[in-house]
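task queued by scheduler; priority normal; single chain, no ligands, no partner chains; default sampling; output format set to structure tokens
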Amino acid sequence: MKRLLAPLSTGALLTLLSSAPSLVYAHEMEAATSYSMSNKELLYLLVGVVGLLGFVLLVLALALILLVQYHAQRNYNASALQLPSISLLPDFGKLWAWFSGARAKGGTGAKADLPLDHSYDGITELDNAAPPLFTWILYGTMLFAVVYMLNYHVFEWSPNQEEEYQIAMEEAAKQKEEWMKLAANQVDETNVEYTDDPARLAEGQEIFMANCSPCHGQKMEGITGPNLVDPYWVHGGGPKNIFKTIKYGVPEKGMISWQSQLSPAQMASVVSFIISQEGTNPPNPKAPEGEKWVPEAEEAAQGEGAAEDGMESATEEQQAEEQPTTAEVEEVSASAANATRSQS
């Protein structure tokens, strides 16, 4: 044992001591960044980190004790100084012999005391006892099997694999729902879009009936506020313009700003509900106000079509200018005839 510990130096111990905190820090960072881990997984991770740290500290303490014992026995002569011999640890040789079971049944471990049951070609079989380590592993697995069966199948203290899967799926659904709520509240007048989700339309209808119908009517036919089902809009149609009007309001016409009372997600739901009712025919609709709204895509398409028509007109005019007129053709023909007569 002393020969094995002889190469061990103080630098090696310092290296082990410096690597242990970094290992624990890495596990702590992993646990901190894995924000989606369940409480049970975090507990398992914490127990594992603490157990690993305890094991590393135990190994370091054992190595330090052996190192101190080695240097003490090497540098000091206990008999010359009339000091008791330094023995901080038990005799590992005897302990290992007992632990590994290197002894005969009922014997002292010497070959002469081992029972010789039979031999083949001069090769004798020594009836050694099984190492206690193997026996402990066997008993440990048996005990684990009993505890596992009682825990998961008899008393059902812990969820089985199928139940853990269902729990994980429910937690994932909750996290997704929370994320969707946060993502929905990040919408504004620059990125709002129409959605035909029934849940969002129902939410928008409920909010509209409670807050907007007194001015725009139950069917959006318009009362003091404008008609919202025709294609004419005072402040521009489309999701972005409607969202902007709801968010900031029109104070000079009596419409308040709703951004302090409704969340961005709620205003986006109202926008989708209003657009979904466009083209309906409510009774007694208010006369159209504003200008007819053309969606940006259609407006761009119309602009491209007008540009193409303009290019075609310009090409036709150019071709018309390049073609000679009838008078010019007759004049050229007359000149050619006169030249022929003069030559003849």
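post-processing summary
- The two ends are 137 Å apart (CA to CA).
- The chain has a mean pLDDT of 74.
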